[in-house]
Every structure is written in C-alpha cells, then in structure tokens.
Write a structure and sequence with these properties.
It is a single chain. The protein is of the alpha/beta class. The chain has 14 helices and ten strands. The protein folds into three domains: 11-95, Helix Hairpins (Orthogonal Bundle); 114-236, NAD(P)-binding Rossmann-like Domain (Rossmann fold); 263-337, Regulator of K+ conductance, C-terminal domain (Alpha-Beta Plaits). The chain has helices at residues 11-37, 41-53, 65-95, 97-113, 125-136, 151-156, 169-174, 190-203, 217-225, 233-246, 248-259, 282-285, 287-291, 327-337, and strands spanning 118-121, 141-145, 161-163, 182-185, 208-212, 229-231, 264-270, 294-299, 305-307, 320-326. Strand 4 (182-185), helix 8 (190-203) and strand 5 form a beta-alpha-beta unit.
C-alpha cells in the first residue's frame, strides 16, 4: 500500500479502510443476530443498521441476554467505525478531495486504455516544454512526476499523469510503458536517466527512447543503455546562443518555422507502402506543385539523412521525408497518404 512521503496513510486510503471495516461489522452483525436470535436476513440487517446508527426505532423481537451482549459489542465497535467514516468523509469534503479521488480514478481508466502513446518522465523545465509541444500537436501522452507540488498544475492543464518515481517498474506499468510508442526521459539527474533507459528498454524492446544528458560524456552511456536519441539541452542552448550572435537571421528562421509562427512549419512523413510516391523521383512527385511543400531532407532506412536531396532522388516505401510548408499543405499530404 502506497503512503504519503511522511509514512502516513492518505485520506482516501483511510476512507477505504473505514468502509471495509464498517462493511465487516455489518456482516458480523447480521450473522450474529441470525445465529443468536434466529432472525431472518432482512431483520438481522435492520437490527444491525439501527444499532450502528443509534437510531433505536425498536427491536424486531425481545432480545435474549446473549443478543443484548452482542448489541453492546456492536455499539462499542460498530459505532467507533461509523464515527471514523464520518470523520474521514468530513475531511474529504473540507479538503475537496472527493473530486480529486474521482478525477484520479477517471484518469487511471483513461491511461489504462492508451496504446501507442508517449510518456514524459519528469515535469521540470524540459519536461514541461515537451508537454506543451505535445499538446499543440494533439499528441496522446502521459506524464510521470514524483513532485506533489506539480500536481495542481497538471490537473489545471488537464494533463494525464502518474505521480511517482519514474524509475520504478510499477509506476512505468501504470503509465502503460509496455504498450507505449515513445519514452521521453527528462529527469534532471543523468544517472536516473541511464537507469530509466535500461529499465524501459527491458520492459519494452520496441520502445523509442529519447533521453536527456547534461553533458556530452553522458551521450555514450545513454546510448549503450538503449536510448535511440540523446539530447543535451545545455549544449544545444549554447549552440543556439552562438548562432544567434553570429547568424541571427538563420536563428530567427529556425525559430519561426519550428514554432509555426511564420505560417510555415517543418514536419516529417513516412512514404507509405503502395503509395503513388514510391518509385518516383523528387521532381516527379509534384509535392511542390500540388501541395506547396518542399522536401529538405530524406532518410532512407538504415542510412544517414540526405540533406537538400537532388531532384533525381528516388523515393521508396518507408523513406522518411522532412518537409517544410504551410500547415494546410502538410495536412493535405497526410490525408492523401491515409
């Protein structure tokens, strides 16, 4: 049973225990009245409820001495449990935790139904930015975050999340690691990212893993652990600042296209099997004429990316095209492929 950081039971766990105890007392009460007084199940339930509630509407029949002793037992133990339940309910109402418990259960059901989704491990500065970009693209994802202080923001943004340590197997299972498409590990500690990568790769051999490294030395460790891509935010940030100093217009172009602020955006698409593009050269694909987009890169399976490919390059099934163009043109290409 999970507990709060201070080792105490949460209010919802106390409520579960209280209701379980109260149910047990009711069952014991019914069995006791049926055995000692030969009451029918309905009469036994009636006597148990009026005893526990201390309403005292009246006995079904005059009780024997053994029955009266049993009533005393119910009052001592049953009323105590009833009072405990009432106290916990009052706490839940005062703290507004009814909505939280209901929302938590609803969220868990949604996460359990997710497949081929994305998991963000860590909701710090980097993880928060990843989540923002995923929301812009309507990507199905779930966040794993251990810091309770981040929970209100996750609720406010309507983000599906699991509260817990991302390196724990049970937490990863709750996030659907075995059916996920991609894991984005943004934990601030590099050792944790390595351990998470090893664990996630063991739990899902086909998982695409993108991990964060603080320094270039960590790239090899993460790739040996099973990461498909490793990102170093500090290094990328330094390169971006240097480029902003030396080539400010190039940086402005990259910034506007990556965020779609100029009306243009960069997207990648896979050439589907049996597509009309398969077997055609770039100049014969008519993507520029038909959709107003330009191919700026092509990655063939098991090969490096071809930057600025020539017009005679032949497209094949499963090639990945890197396209730049307006969002409506890119969307129309996606629909035509589908």
């Amino acid at each position: 049973m999970h507990m709060e950081n201070n080792g105490q039971l949460t209010s919802s766990q106390k409520l579960q225990i209280a209701f379980a105890g109260l149910t047990l007392i009711i069952v014991i009460g019914m069995i006791g009245f049926m055995a000692l007084e030969n009451f029918s199940p309905l009469d036994a339930l009636y006597m148990t409820i009026i005893t526990l509630s201390t309403v005292g509407f009246g006995e079904v029949a005059t009780l024997h001495p053994s029955g009266r002793l049993f009533v005393i037992f119910l009052i001592l133990f049953g009323v105590m449990f009833t009072g405990f339940v009432v106290t916990i309910l009052g706490q839940l109402v005062m703290e507004g935790q009814f909505n939280e418990i209901y929302g938590r259960k609803k969220m868990e059901r949604k996460i359990n139904k997710m497949t081929n989704h994305y998991i963000i491990a860590g909701y710090g500065r980097v993880g928060r930015q990843v989540a923002i970009e995923f929301m812009k693209k309507n990507v199905q994802f779930v966040v794993i975050e251990k810091d309770v202080n981040s929970v209100p923001e996750l609720y406010q943004e309507s983000i599906l999340f699991i509260q817990g340590e991302a390196t724990e197997d049970e937490v990863l299972r709750k996030a659907g690691i075995e059916s996920a498409h991609t894991l984005v590990s943004t934990l601030p500690n590099e050792a944790q990212n390595v351990y998470l990568t090893l664990t996630a790769r063991f739990m899902n051999k086909n998982l695409h893993i993108i991990a964060r490294a603080d320094y270039e030395q960590g790239i090899k460790k993460l790739k040996r652990a099973g990461a498909n891509h490793v990102v170093t935010p500090h290094v990328l940030g330094g390169i971006r600042m240097a480029m902003a100093t030396l080539r400010p217009n190039v940086v402005d172009f990259m910034h506007s296209t990556s965020l779609g602020e100029s009306g243009l955006t960069i997207e990648e698409m896979r050439v589907p099997i049996d597509s009309s593009l398969s077997g055609k050269s770039l100049k014969d694909s008519n993507l520029k004429q038909d959709f107003g987009v330009t191919i700026i890169g092509v990655k063939k399976p098991n090969h490096d990316m071809i930057i600025a490919p020539g017009p005679d390059l032949i497209l094949d099934a499963d090639d990945i095209m890197v396209l730049i163009g307006h969002e409506d043109g890119l969307e129309n290409i996606s629909k035509s492929f589908t």
